[in-house]
UniProtKB/TrEMBL annotation:
Disulfide bonds join 24-27. Keywords: Disulfide bond, Electron transport, Redox-active center, Transport. It comes from the Bacteria. GO terms for biological process: cell redox homeostasis. This is Thioredoxin. GO terms for molecular function: protein-disulfide reductase activity. Residues 1-99 form the Thioredoxin domain. PANTHER family: GEO12009P1. The active site is at residues 24, 27. It comes from Chryseobacterium defluvii. The record marks 18 as: Deprotonates C-terminal active site Cys. Belongs to the thioredoxin family. The record marks 25-26 as: Contributes to redox potential value. GO terms for cellular component: cytosol.
């Protein structure tokens, strides 16, 4: 996953990573928000989900201490990262800003 993850975040379009856990109720809320964000940004950005229980090393590498944690990468650079549930408008604007 680490090699594949590097390829994904090295994209020249923004990539939103959703660090989540299957047992996390706020993560389920965030997931439905991300479906709408994807519709809003279309091909302008990618949205990838990373299960922190399946990939604890990756979560640790990026300082994920709680879920959900969202991070935006472009060209391998971390541009934005925050924990907690975020709304459609905020995430849409962030991705369009970095596009």
């Amino acid at each position: 996953m680490s090699q594949k993850f590097q390829e994904i975040i090295n994209s020249d379009r923004p990539v939103l990573i959703d660090f989540f856990a299957t047992w996390c109720q706020p993560c389920k809320v965030q997931s439905s928000v991300l479906n709408t964000v994807k519709e809003n940004v279309g091909e302008g950005a990618r949205i990838i989900k990373v299960d922190v229980d399946q990939y604890p090393t990756l979560a640790s590498q990026y300082g994920v201490r709680g879920v959900p944690t969202l991070a935006i990468f472009k060209n391998g650079e971390l541009l934005w990262k925050e924990s907690g549930v975020h709304d459609v408008n905020t995430l849409t604007q962030l991705l369009k800003q970095y596009a």
